[in-house]
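Let's do one together. I've listed all components of the complex below, 570 residues spread over two lines.
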Amino acid sequence: MPYSEHLNNLVALTKEARKLIIDMAASETGCHIGGSLSVIDLLIGVYSKYVKDENTTIVLSKGHTAAALYATLYLYDLIEDNPAESYGQKGSLFTGHPNHKLPHIPFSTGSLGHGIPYAAGWALGQKVKNQDGLGIVLGGDGELQEGLCWETAQIIQAKSISNFVYIVDCNGGQNDGYVSDISPIHNLRQRFESFGFQVEEIDGHNMEHILAALELSHEKPLALLATTIKGKGVEAIEGNPDAHYAKIPERVASKWKRSLV
Amino acid sequence: MSKSGRDSYRDELTKLAFSNEQIICIEADLGGKNHPFEQSHPDRFFNLGIAELASIDIAAGLAEAGFVPFFSSFASFAAVRAAESIKLAMGYMEKNIKIVAAYGGVSGGWFGTTHHCLEDIAIIQSFQNIRIACPHGELETRRVIREAAESKEPYYIRLARNAVYDSLDRAEESSCKDILIEGKVHTNAKLCLISIGEEATELCKTIVQENDSVVHAHLCYVDIISLKSYIGDLKQLSDTILVVEEHRATGSSASNLALLMPECKVYSHDCGEKWPMYGGTHKDVLDYLGFGLEPLQQQIHLIGGTDGF
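Okay, and this is what the predicted structure of the assembly comes out as:
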């Protein structure tokens, strides 16, 4: 398939994923829509490259954006059921944070920070086995307030776990407001560089940038700092940290889905 | 000469790893110096430094990749500091991780309260799905390590510091999940002492030598599934039970057995409610907490009443 066609297909897939996320926000429980819409392009891009690589694990460490993960797994045919039909309901495994009882979710995340060491452990295992697999983790910028992220970065550097990719969804928001107001993460590039990472900054909504970043060869662990917009794609909530979690009426969901570019 | 539990662990794991290439040994800066595993299997030995939470989650990733990671630290830093990682990775997700926790109870003696752990069994027990073993002496420790390596279940293995104990006489074919019984009476005894852990087992060995009417049941595994499996045999031994355990009463094996055996009288000889704030030897700290031979003898006397045992 020509690259341009592949790219267009992925962009189309992100639109379908956004519709599913909006549907989950219109469920009885609502969902973490803001972060789900900021991370979805990154998830679709990562899965497009590694979906069939059994030696690579992909972990969504910012687990509150489970809606984005469920949408991605569904659109790549890795789970059978449409998550929007039972999200959050009694008896449904589509819980508000990723559930390892579902296929292709190796680790239940949601308590922030834990996905990073899990993926690092997987990557370390590939090294011991002399395999080429990667540990890929998608985390948040707010999540970096957790000490466990940096405890793990210390180990990644100390044990030269270079087959590790840490994608940070830098949407600038967290539950109670802006990251910059609550506990800013200063000098993020320099921080990762000081832990021995190769650092690249990308537009987290530009699929071409995302795919290119995933092709980068790296002898060190790779940190991709992805600038994103909370609520991306839905003009009414874009950039608003109050959109961290939302429960919306069906008519609003229909309007938002129609307005997606 | 016998080895301590910690040395037995290091030696046994190193031996096992020659035939089991899936075993990985993880330390957190509290046992890695001149570790025999590192000398024999350097590519599978990782001292991850002072990072207990991350170590457990990294072990989860290794387990998912097909390895059998053994993580060792002190009980306080494993069970308490890394509790959330254990809850999620080992309890909820049942990753095949083995924790070997030294310095259980107050075996750290003069190291002080930060290094003591009288709450670990309660914490781990509450997470469900995790096997809990408190082996006594070299032979039982080695056997528990072998059983853990063969099992796909997550394990929490509680050891003490560096003290050496004479191993109990456990039959070669016996599993550590079997009750080990000492004493002249083996059914309908007036009192059954249950020992859990090294010091407790030493106390019970002494009591049973002094008192013909008491039977001693040593339990190595104390997770809820194991405790349930013992009930029938324990009832045969006696309807009056005194559990001796270097732990708080809260969440102790005595409290669990009391719930599992409501028709029996279940008593506890434990470390009480005080904080172990003073220095001294392991025994000195236990004395301060009211855990030892003399208070145990007094408690047995009180339980026996005027008729005694």
